[in-house]
């Protein structure tokens, strides 16, 4: 099957089979795909929480309007944007580049100047929005990768970010919950899996110039 065929197969699963769990290798593959997700300048302006603890998930379900996917999926993935990006964050990134590529940090002065200049030229609100956009890119990679592996993934925005931050202690970590995804395997009786996928026609969606 091509990736297009697999994207036709996927849907936003509403009812997960609580008896089916991702194997450790499957979960590792999904997380590696997220790790490889592109981001602006490669900064990866977010962290990814993998929630399995049933007590924590029960609390999160209450903060997500009681949606069953929160507790019934194999794992709940939370993309939490960096809320306090600063020069230190940028400098840490440059150190990482130097370490991984085995080059002298001084040779990256041009890149460092660009990174720090970009961070310093934006307001805290702009920096947060920038980080949140990158989290959504990672979410897209997760959804496509899950489909490729035959794993169901449901991206979700229906939750109270402030309550999620409180339950998970994210504010103290300089993070804020941005978007979430439930991953696992669809229940056989999920009626939504039988519905025809609805998308805008290509003639309405695409503009060729």
Automatic annotation (TrEMBL):
<comment type="similarity">
    <text>Belongs to the nitroreductase family.</text>
</comment>
<keyword id="KW-0288">FMN</keyword>
<dbReference type="GO" id="GO:0016491">
    <property type="term" value="F:oxidoreductase activity"/>
</dbReference>
<feature type="domain" description="Nitroreductase">
    <location>
        <begin position="7"/>
        <end position="184"/>
    </location>
</feature>
<keyword id="KW-0285">Flavoprotein</keyword>
<dbReference type="InterPro" id="IPR000415">
    <property type="entry name" value="Nitroreductase-like"/>
</dbReference>
<dbReference type="InterPro" id="IPR033878">
    <property type="entry name" value="NfsB-like"/>
</dbReference>
<keyword id="KW-0560">Oxidoreductase</keyword>
<protein>
    <submittedName>
        <fullName>NAD(P)H-dependent oxidoreductase</fullName>
    </submittedName>
</protein>
<dbReference type="Pfam" id="PF00881">
    <property type="entry name" value="Nitroreductase"/>
</dbReference>
<dbReference type="InterPro" id="IPR029479">
    <property type="entry name" value="Nitroreductase"/>
</dbReference>
<keyword id="KW-0521">NADP</keyword>
């Amino acid at each position: 099957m091509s990736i297009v065929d697999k994207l036709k197969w996927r849907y936003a699963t509403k009812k997960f089979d609580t008896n089916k769990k991702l194997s450790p290798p499957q979960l590792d593959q999904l997380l590696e795909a997220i790790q490889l997700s592109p981001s602006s300048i490669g900064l990866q302006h977010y962290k990814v929480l993998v929630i399995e603890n049933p007590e924590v998930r029960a609390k999160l379900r209450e903060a997500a309007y009681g949606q069953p996917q929160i507790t019934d999926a194999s794992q709940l993935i939370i993309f939490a944007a960096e809320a306090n990006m600063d020069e230190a964050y940028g400098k840490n990134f440059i150190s990482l580049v130097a370490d991984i590529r085995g080059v002298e940090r001084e040779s990256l002065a041009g890149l460092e100047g660009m990174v720090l200049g970009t961070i310093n030229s934006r307001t805290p609100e702009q920096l947060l929005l920038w980080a949140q956009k990158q989290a959504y890119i990672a979410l897209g990679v997760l959804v496509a990768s899950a489909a490729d592996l035959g794993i169901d993934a449901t991206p979700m925005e229906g939750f109270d970010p402030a309550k999620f931050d409180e339950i998970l202690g994210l504010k103290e970590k300089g993070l804020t919950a941005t978007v979430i995804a439930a991953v696992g395997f669809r229940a056989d009786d999920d009626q939504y899996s039988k519905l025809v996928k609805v998308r805008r026609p290509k003639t309405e969606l695409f503009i060729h110039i």
